[in-house]
């Protein structure tokens, strides 16, 4: 990881939580987010608790937690936060750090999103059959595909899963968009 | 009524009937849809979970393609996730010129440029505001009197952007359902989360959310949706959930343009009810009598 030079000339690791801290800086710990979150029942830390950890810079605790990975982007917390904080965006920002740093707790999520995006990069539009197969292979747990096998068969029966990419015959690769985005992101970081 | 049309990936695959019924219904309602040439994926919830800039660029590409079209300056989007991604990008570039510059460097690789001149609109916005119950009543061929319909909005077409409905207590589907003569099921689950992609990565969490919604709709004739993700989550796991809770929670789940299409007399084969994963026998029986 690149090092940035502080004003005093001292080398310090870049603070990846800085941007998120700015987002939730005005949090008053009221718990409206927790009360509004449909997934809070499955979380180890409640959203309210998570924002406190962000403000305290407790990076290890945050990225061992299941909490941010369970956000399903329903935007109830963003809607109801009395301080008007962009909490769903902050959850996404935590996912983005976990994706970059390949956090163990975000492994399945990253596997899913990563294979989805790989399919999009190659074909321009997602090709469900390819992406779900890649996801199932990558998670290395035969029980996971089993849970979806009956749904998969029903979708096949309805001819909703195509054996070819949807944009087949057209060149719609997003290679340029993906690589230029990556290049720009690396210069920023 | 002219609109540019962004169907999105799901509508070519798992939500094929949403695409076909939208096209059939909008045509019958007098709207002219022109598909955006060479549109690509909006990034769904995947891109934003990995990179903000990638998420914005993927959507921006489609907005830039729309700007190149000669037709309407409004994009009609049936999928709530696509809608939010495109809308969020259009809003972001207006308030963050720095991001717009970066996006245009990326799009420049394909000689595309975004100035953000197009307006992004959800199908429910267009159907409830531009078409409306009056047009539906005029076109009505079939009465759904005696049916109880549960309107399900989900999240991303009503939150975080307050555009055409109340993000806390959505009601925009009610006049449309009433125009078919059906009763609107009054419930608190209309704007709750279906679990979204948690259903694919943490199934047990997603199942809880879907169960609460199905329980809330028990006793009605159908749930009506406006999003492919909500639709598949609500229809695909009904057997598993019914078994787990030892109670029959099987219910018909239709896309809004399928219900409205039936009401204005479009043939079932054009609305593709055969492609839905959950249309119950009792619903079919009742439909025959309409």
Topology:
The complex is a heterodimer of chains A (189) and B (290).
Chain A: E1 4-5, E2 11-12, H1 18-24, H2 32-36, H3 47-55, H4 59-62, H5 76-80, H6 87-100, H7 107-123, H8 128-139, H9 143-157, H10 175-188
Antiparallel strand pairs in A: 1-2
Chain B: E1 2-5, H1 16-28, E2 32-35, H2 44-50, H3 52-68, E3 74-77, H4 80-95, H5 97-108, E4 119-122, H6 123-139, E5 148-151, H7 174-179, E6 183-184, H8 198-201, H9 203-217, E7 222-225, H10 228-236, H11 238-244, E8 252-255, H12 256-263, H13 268-271, H14 281-288
In short:
Chain A is built from 10 helices and 2 strands; from the N terminus they run ββαααααααααα. Chain A is mainly alpha-helical.
Counted beta strands of chain A: 2
Distance between the termini of chain A: 9 Å
Q: Can you tell me the residue ranges of chain A where pLDDT is under 50 for at least 5 consecutive residues?
A: 1-9
Terminal Cα span of chain B:
30 Å
Instruction: Let me know the largest β-sheet of chain B.
Output: 4 strands, parallel
Number of E strands of chain B:
8
Summed up, the domain count of chain A is 2
Number of helices of chain B: 14
Whole-number count of domains of chain B:
2
Residue-averaged pLDDT of chain A: 90
Shape of chain B: globular
Strand content of chain A: under 5%
Structural class of chain A: mainly alpha
H/E element order of chain B:
EHEHHEHHEHEHEHHEHHEHHH
- CATH class identity of the largest domain in chain B: Alpha Beta
What is Rg of chain A?
Answer: 20 Å
Quick one: CATH superfamily of the largest domain in chain A? Answer: Alpha-helical ferredoxin
Instruction: Decide which structural class fits the backbone of chain B.
Output: alpha/beta
Q: Helix coverage percent of residues of chain A?
A: 40-55%
CATH topology of the largest domain in chain A: Fumarate Reductase Iron-sulfur Protein, Chain B, domain 2
Number of DSSP helical runs of chain A: 10
